[in-house]
Structures are given as C-alpha cells and as structure tokens.
Amino acid sequence: MAYSLQLTSITNSSNPPKNEISNGLLEQSKEIVFNQSSSKLSNNVAMTNSGIPIVVGIVTTNGTQVSGFGNISSSNNTQVDGDTVFDIASIAKTFVTIILADMVKQGLVSLDDPIEKYLPTGNVTVPSYDGHKITLEDLATHTSGLPDFPVGWIRNHSYTTQQVYDFISNTTLSSEPGTKANYSDIGMGLLGHILSLRTGVSCEQLVKDRILNVLAMDSTAMRMNASGISVPDDIKSRFATGHIAGKEVNLEFIPETIQSAGAMYSTTNDMLKYLSANMGLIKTKINDAMQETHLIRHSFGQSTNYKSLKDYIGLGWTVTTDFGKEVIWHTGSIDGYTSIIGFNPSTQIGLVILCGCHYSDFSPQEMIDLAIPFLLDYNNQKSEIHCD
C-alpha cells in the first residue's frame, strides 16, 4: 500500500483542521489493520473505539501532531493518546547504536575493535570467518555474519548469559564480517551486552543515563530483568495491550543479556522527542553521536516497491534514498506490537506509528510502504503545513 493522503488539500487550506496530517495517516493505518477482505483479524474485531490501539505522531519545525484510535485494553477503556505506552521492540536497536557512537566519541571503544576483546574468553568462543573477526561496527551494521537468531533458539524463553554465550559459540557465520548486511537480532543484542560489560553498567541504565535522561523521555525504558518482564506500576496503567489476530496477548520476554535487540517500551510523545533530537531540531550533548549513526556504511537491499529507492545501513538505522532525497528509519515488531519511526533530514519531518497489533496484522512492510513515500513526498510542503 502506498501513501495516498493528498497533501495539496491540506496546504491549500489557510486554516487546516487540527491534526489533519496525523489523522489522515491514522485512517490509513486503521484501513490496513481492519481490512476485513484480507481476513487477517478475528471476526470479533470490529472497527470501533474499543478495537486495536494505534497512535500516529508527526513532528516538523512547526511542532507536533498526535492522533490515536482505540482503548488501552478491553478492561481499560481509556482512549489511547500520545502518552500511551507501547512496546517498541527493535527500535531499541537505534538507542544502543547511539550509545556505541557516543562511547566511540569518548574513546571508550573503537568501531573496529574485535568483539572478543570485550567478552569473557573462558565463557564464550566468538566465531570467525576464514580468520576474519567480528567487530563492533559489524554488529551495529548487521554485517557480522551472525544469523537473526542461532539454530535452536526459542523465542519468549528465559536464557542465562552463559546459555546465550553457548549459542554464539556454536554458531557458524554465513559470510565474512563486514561484507554483507543481514539483519541479526542476536548480533545487536550482543552489542548492547558488550557495551554494558565495557562500562560496568547495565544496558538499561546506559540507555537511561545517556539518552532518556538527556531528552526527558520519562515514559521510555528497557523492560527486562534476569528472569522476567519489569514494568513500573505507573507505566502499567498506560500500557496498551498487544494483539495477535485481534486477541489480547502478554508481553514477549527477551533474555536480559540481549535486551537491546528489542526489549523496550515508549510513548508517541517520547518518540517525537527522540526524533526531534535525531533530526537536529533540538540541540543536546548527544547530537554528534546521533548524527554519526545516520551515515551510510553498507548497502542493505531494497525494502520498498519503488525501484528508484535503495536501502543502506548506518549504525542501526536504515537509510532509504533515491540518491537525491533520503529517509532514515527503523521498524519494531514483536508479539502483539508493531511500530515504525522515521524522518526526512532535508524537509525535517518525522513520523511515529505505534500499534498494539501483531506484525501479521500490520506488517513492517506495510508500515514501510506507508511511511517512506509520505516522508519523501512531504518535500516542499513543510512551510505550508501547520502543526499544533
């Protein structure tokens, strides 16, 4: 599905209705999720305000817009909004790569450091490929040669640190590190773990100290402890329930050792702060580290249906470009939730979509096909569209 909201109808209006852009994207998101002809959802899911929760947020140089649909859960009929909490899954990867870039800037690590330098040699044997070792940059750019998850890995299962090490030790690399980008959850999870070992601080605390506190993202955090999911009581009341085929599900567990691969929650308002910082709309001490993560480092294929657009990988972020314009983005998918954040650095517009639905109901590809054209087509519109 391609983006089809008519920007001209908005920009030609001298007084556009409140949140018209985010409302339009919300309607398109709802159309995808509740497309009855696709038979994706259970028959008992109706397109009512008690249905699957979705929130859309927009940020430009003129401000923000937020639109929400649905309730927090079947037992909590509070309407979702910019302060509603969702699992953001793999968007967490962009946080850990910003921390990596910040630590490089401080001289604590180097991108070309082999990862075995930071892992306990008596507990784990890091695989190599014809003598070529995995580096920190390889983990951050999905070019380590590691699989998405090792053979035998069971999702939603509690693994000890040593068990995770054992999986890695018994994994064969698919390609020479640094040569080919293939998405790897275990690789990015390992990166966060290594940065934690290097600093002697938990990954959760690193994210909090180096990013969340800087941006006052008070409703964002990692959600793992050693053996279970940890969510503060004040967050639980605002946490939108996830769905699979229209049925409510519990949060998926990710082992603490690799929580940086996707064990994170946030709100649309917090994500708009995060996008504002990445876009350079606000100036902070981590701006340089953020900008470093946006730089293209490897080819990453093609995620859209537009042949002129190619994907590249920075540190964690995907960069989609037609070699004239670019969009920098990341999706998140986990049991019960799917999401996307992205921005156009030239036109300075950012987009957040958080949905309490499974990726089979609103797939990353559908989110990409909605978000990328929108962010590209916004060119030359920014001065005429007014946000609240």
Layout of helices and strands:
Blueprint: H1 7-11, H2 20-33, E1 54-60, E2 63-69, E3 71-73, E4 76-79, E5 85-87, H3 92-105, H4 136-140, H5 161-169, H6 185-199, H7 203-215, E6 221-222, H8 233-236, E7 242-244, E8 247-249, E9 264-267, H9 268-278, H10 287-293, E10 298-301, E11 310-313, E12 318-321, E13 326-334, E14 337-344, E15 349-355, H11 364-377
Antiparallel strand pairs: 1-2, 1-15, 3-4, 5-9, 6-9, 7-8, 10-11, 11-12, 12-13, 13-14, 14-15
Silhouette: globular
Strand content: 15-25%
How many β-strand runs?
A: 15
Measure the end-to-end span.
28 Å
Q: Main β-sheet: number of strands, strand sense, barrel status? A: 8 strands, antiparallel
Question: Spans of 5+ residues with little confidence (pLDDT < 50)?
Answer: 1-16, 43-49, 380-388
Coarse structural class: alpha+beta
Order of helices and strands: HHEEEEEHHHHHEHEEEHHEEEEEEH
Approximate helicity band: 25-40%
Please tally the helical runs, counting DSSP H or I stretches of 4 or more residues: 11
Placed side by side, the strands forming the largest sheet appear as 2-1-15-14-13-12-11-10
Question: Taking Cα atoms only, what radius of gyration do you get, to the nearest Å?
Answer: 20 Å
Summed over residues and divided by their number, the pLDDT gives a mean of 89
